[in-house]
Amino acid sequence: MFVKIMRSTVVAAGAAVLLVGALTGSAQARTGAPYIGDGYANGKDAVWCVQHSLNFNFADEARSFPYRTHHAQITEDGYWGPQTKEALVWFQQQRHNLVADGIVGRETGDYLLFNGDPWYNGTYPNTSGWCYNFLPSNW
């Protein structure tokens, strides 16, 4: 009888572990999202996520560091153009180790996701934000 109870307990515990693992999944980098910028097929959702993340970062830095020069808000229309590129280059120049090329690759995508709006971008290592699906990233 004791062996039967122990066997049932082990089976139930194993099933619980499998269920929790299936529900939570594993964190995977979104390395498959296409780059964004001049010369790339820029999806409207992806460009909006760049614009929104930049605006969130600009507003946050203006509040946190009012004595520093900060960038003005840009239009969040989902279209890649000179205003978005200029704002992205400015953002890249403010970050160490980012190439200021006006292209959202994995490194710039990491910074945008990490420093952008957590409602849309998720919070590291939680990748549940909507924009996580559109910005290239290493996480």
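the 2nd protein, sequnce then structure:
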Amino acid sequence: MFRLTTLPFLKKDIIVLDEFGHPLPNVNILFSNGQGTITDSNGRATVKAVFITQILTFSHIGFGTESIAFKDIEPVVTLISETTSLDEVIIIATKPKPKPTPPPKSKPKSQWWIYPVLAVAALGIIKVATPKKSPKRKIKM
């Protein structure tokens, strides 16, 4: 017969503040295995650990990251603001080049010369000759 036992959790209630004593909401509090919690809107959180040697990492955007062993955590944890200056970024916009227009589709060549010829032919001045069709030849094999 097997007996299941669970390890008791070690529990601490903490509050995370900035260097001016203001509570920090949404501070990430993570163990090395990736599990953890975040602080509420008042900077408060409850952390639970199985071993007192587990390391907790406190991180928040705009603040330095602190790593503290569970046994060394005080009821109040203070994070120091950290500023990072970025290099200047210059964006140059150029007017996009227009797409080349495709050449117009070739139109069938107009037979502009035929109209005067037909007009003259209609008057009977000239006779328009039509090509004669050649008879089809049978090829014997």
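The CA atoms of residues 57 and 67 lie 4 Å apart. DSSP finds one helix and seven strands in the chain.
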